[in-house]
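Batch manifest, entry 17 of 40.
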Amino acid sequence: MTTSTRLSLTPTERRTTVCLAGLFAARMLGLFLVLPVFAVAAQTLQGGMDPVQVGLALGIYGLTQAVMQIPFGMASDRWGRRPVILFGMVLFMVGSVICAMSDTIYWVTIGRAIQGSGAISAAITAWLADSTRPEVRTRAMAMIGASIGMSFAVSLVLSPFVVGFVGLSGLFWVITALGAIAFIVAGWVIPTVPQVKEDSSSAGVLSVFTDGGLVRLNIGVFFLHLSQIALFVVVPPLLSEYGGLSANHLWHAYLPVILVSFVFMVPIIIVTEKRRAHVQTLKLCVLLLIVVGAGLATLSSGWWPLLFWLFLFFVAFNVLEALQPSLVSRLAPAGMKGLALGVYSTTQALGLFLGGVLGGWLSRSAGSNAVFWAVAVLSALWFVSTVSLKAPAMQASPVQSDSGN
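Output type: C-alpha cells
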C-alpha cells in the first residue's frame, strides 16, 4: 500500500466520518446557538444582568458533562456507542425544553445543567476512532472539527435572527428540535462499525489515568475550553461596544472570522499529517494562544484589532480541536478509547464550567483585560506541560466486530 493511499480515507471511513460529523454538528449547533448572544440576550431574564450568573449559566453544562463523561464513555465501551448516544440526546432535549420554558436565569441554569448531563462527546469520538485507521484519524477528527466549526459559523448567523424574532425562549425551542434531529441521525443513519473488545483489567483502566501523554492532553483541553468560554463572557459585549452591534447583528463580526480561520486551518492539518508533526503543531498552536491572550489584553482596543485576535484564536482553537482527540485515541490502551476519551471530555467539560465562572468573576471584578491576561497565563502553563509530550507510534490496530454500535 502506497503512502498516498494510506493517507486517504477509504469509502467506509469517509461515510462513517461524514455521518458522525453530521451528528456532532447537529448537537453542537444546539449548544453554540446560545454562546454568541447569551451574554446580551440574558439581560431579558430575571437575574440576567449579573455577569457571574450569566457566566454560570454558560458554563454549568460543562460541570454536568464533567461528571457524566467518564460513565458515558465506559458505558459505550461496554454496551456500544449507539445506545449511549441516544440516551444522552434524550437528556439534552429535556434540558432544552426546561430552558425554553424559563423566564429566570436560575431555571435556565438548571436546564443547561440537564443539557450537559447528556455527555456523549466521548462516545461519538470513540465511535470515530473505531471507524478509522490511526494514520488518517487526525484528518477524520479534522472533519469533525470542521463540522463543529461550521456549526458555530451557522450559529453566528442563525442565533441573532432567532433571538430577534422569537426571543431567547424561541432559541431554546430551536435547540430542542436540533436535538431531535441528532437523535434520528444517531439512531438510524450512522452505520454500524467494528469496536475493539474492551480491556476491563484494572491495569488497563489505571493506565488511562496515569499515562503521561494522556495526562498532558487532558491538561491541554482543560485550558483550551476554559479560555474559550471565558472569552465569550466578555467578547460579545466588546463587539457590541466597538462595532455598535446589537445581539442580532453580532454575526457580522463572527462569520468572516470563523470562515477565514478555516481557510488557514485546513492546510495546517494536511501538512501536519503528511509530516506526522502532530506534537510540533500542537506546541506551536499553544504558543499562538499565549500571543492571542497577551494581544487581546494590550492591543485589542478597537473593532479591527479585536477581530484580528479572534481570527488567530480560532485558527489555533480549530487545529487543536482536531489534533488532541486524535492523539488521545492513539495513546489509549486497546479497548479503552471510550474511557480515555471520557476522561479527556471530562477535563474539557470542567474547563467549560470554570471558564464561565472565571470569566464572569474576572469581568465583574477587574474588567475584560483580566480575562485576556488569564488566557495568556493559562496557555503559558499549558505550553510548559507540553515540553515532554511525545508523539505516539503510528500503529494500525485490528478491530473486531461488535453489533452494539
